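Hi, here's the filled form for the chain we discussed.

Project: internal
Contact: R.S.
Residues: 203
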Amino acid sequence: MKKLAISAKFLSLAIAAGSLVACSGSKTEEAAAPAVKATPAEVAAAQAINIRYIDADSIMANYILAQEIQELSLSTMSKISSTEQARAAEIQKLAASIEQKGRNNGYLSQESYEADMANLNKKQQDAQNVLGTMQRRAQQEMMQRQIELNDSLESFIKDYNKEKGYDAILFKAAGVYFNPALDITNEVIKGMNARYEKSKKSK
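And the returned structure, exactly as it came back:
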């Protein structure tokens, strides 16, 4: 999104212009610390900055694709948790059985006890392998989905800005304060959802 990134020089000019306005109201302050004066060209450049911002949290909460990814993530984590609980219960039950059998002198030989312990160890290892595989697959899936989400946002913003012609579209988190009038989040969400729904219908 290089074309959308506002230059550091332009931001500096904007800050400098804002400082001039803030400092002009106090003659005492001017005497103590003379305000930095910008050239007419620099002031004009700062005033010509044409930026907007979007709120990533709102997009994640309201963009249909982001909602679907969130639901998929929750469903995947639920399956992993259920599998983990089922395997743990099975292993605990077997371990309790071995312990109870040992207390009641149920093992007639050391070999019989070792066979049960080997079975317990195998179930523990199998559980670790299954859960490890599920977690790796879930991580890979979520990474791929995140890439899809990022690409979707970047692609829309590029097409959107071809019409709007903003100098920059920033994330709200990139700054301390933005004039609320610069917020185009709802407009972007509406456009992204419309395009996403259209693409789903065409498949």
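Let me know if anything looks off before we file it.
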